[in-house]
Amino acid sequence: MAEFDTSFPVLVLAAGRARDLGHHTLFPPETMLAFRLRPEDLILERLRGLADPTAPQFVKTLGETAAVPMDGNVAVDLAKQTRLLPALLIWQTTPDEAKRLAEAGYPSIEADDVAAQFNQPPAVERITETSLPIAASSSARIVAYRGLADGSENLALIIGNPRARSAPPVRIHSACFTGDVLGSLRCDCGPQLHRAVERIAEEGGGVILYLDQEGRGIGITNKLRSYLLQERGLDTLEANNSLGWEDDARNFGLAAAILKELGLTRIKLLSDNPIKVDSMAKFGILVQSRVAHTIPPNGTNDRYLETKTTCCGHFREQTGTRRTG
């Protein structure tokens, strides 16, 4: 920070985090706001607490509001792409100062180039494919795809011959290390994944899309921060908002791009999430039917599942209708 001694930075925070720090706003939680910092707050420990509600808190209130610097939202988007907390210090420099910093080795990038990349339709590149015998299907295959905009690594588990069916069953599953691998009881991800594999094998073929979108797109580290906030009484959406993230940061356009690359444009979707259904239609995939894919609560994840229904609008298996809140 000592290098930027020609101006004083503003702090850019999401409205959800700003509310925690006592700022009253009606903006959605993911809206970025700017605040003037006090000189005494410009030390690492205080700044970390401003960004991260799970870190020690040394600052209880924010400074005066300011205008979000030009291209500030692009910088935030860039931070989110790398799963950092959406909290930034932004210095505005003179052209001469920017030139000096570039010559000193600081990386430089044009905001327009970043924005142009983010505004591209979701696209993937097929990287490699191999057989992957699994308990449910000894002839299963797996294909790796890289997201062209963000470098994410996504997988398609192919069971049987999906293209032989007019509308093969498909499960769009976001990665969940804690649930899928460790068997966490906080969510229903692991049971949903394994049940989907079984159902697709029972039907003779289909696809599991395993997307690099841990924690609704916020990443594993931020998801663990969210868990800590949930232990303090927040629900899963409130915790994400407190970290500065929106309710759901995933982009299911990647799933549609993979399906098209596999030659599948008409599917039977195993899901209770209306956003997935709507996203497939938006990106040119016809959902011929939706199959309820609800896992009963286990006594630990009851509030989590209720939040998905009441606040995220997930369908209820019994009725096929949604509740919103």
UniProtKB/TrEMBL annotation:
Binding site for GTP: R171, I172, H173, S174, A175, Q192, E214, G215, R216, T236, S271, K276
Stretches assigned to the GTP cyclohydrolase II domain: 126-291
InterPro entries xref list: GTP_cyclohydro_II (IPR032677), RibA (IPR000926), RibA-like_sf (IPR036144)
Cofactor annotation: Zn(2+)
UniProt remark on cofactor binding: Binds 1 zinc ion per subunit.
Binding positions for Zn(2+) per the UniProt entry: C176, C187, C189
S-adenosyl-L-methionine among keywords: no
Record EC number: 3.5.4.25
Molecular function as annotated in GO: GTP cyclohydrolase II activity
Associated pathway: Cofactor biosynthesis; riboflavin biosynthesis; 5-amino-6-(D-ribitylamino)uracil from GTP: step 1/4
NCBIfam families the record matches: PRK00393.1
Family listed: Belongs to the GTP cyclohydrolase II family.
Function: Catalyzes the conversion of GTP to 2,5-diamino-6-ribosylamino-4(3H)-pyrimidinone 5'-phosphate (DARP), formate and pyrophosphate.
Xref: PANTHER family: 3,4-DIHYDROXY-2-BUTANONE 4-PHOSPHATE SYNTHASE (PTHR21327:SF18), GTP CYCLOHYDROLASE II-RELATED (PTHR21327)
Record-given protein name: GTP cyclohydrolase-2
Organism this protein belongs to: Methyloligella solikamskensis
Name of the gene: ribA
